[in-house]
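Incident review: delayed structure delivery

Summary: a single-chain prediction request sat in the queue longer than the usual turnaround. Root cause was a stuck worker, restarted by the on-call engineer. No data loss occurred. The affected request and its eventual output are reproduced below so the record is complete for anyone auditing the incident later.

Affected input:
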Amino acid sequence: MTGNYPTKADTGTLRGVADKEVPVLSPLLTASADVTHEQDERDRVDKTNPAVLRWVREQREFTLEDAAGLLGWSPQFLERVEAGFRPTISQLRRMAELYDCSLPVLLMGEVPSNDSWFDWHLERRKENN
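Output delivered after worker restart:
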């Protein structure tokens, strides 16, 4: 692992919902991913809306259990994050990578009223990559 980011050797892929390949961190890297008491309070992001985090996961068609497993977290921890527990920026980055969305999407103040908005966002990401 280089710095806080896993290297290619540290990761693999797992077939996810709708036969999409999604990254999964090795168990060695994620064993303490949901140990929150060790994390400094200053690293937590204040500007998250739990409803947005849940909405993005559901838009990507992940169950709570599947997403938590692929993130290397317990379902209880992801449930806490989606209920209002403030995640760290690195936890949000992991969510953005799994859900294949940009970090600003996870930081939106509210869930968009247009259900097709997320599809539009994914198309823009594909065009720009």
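Verification: Residues 1-19, 24-39 have pLDDT under 50 and may be disordered.
Action items: add queue-age alerting; document worker restart procedure.
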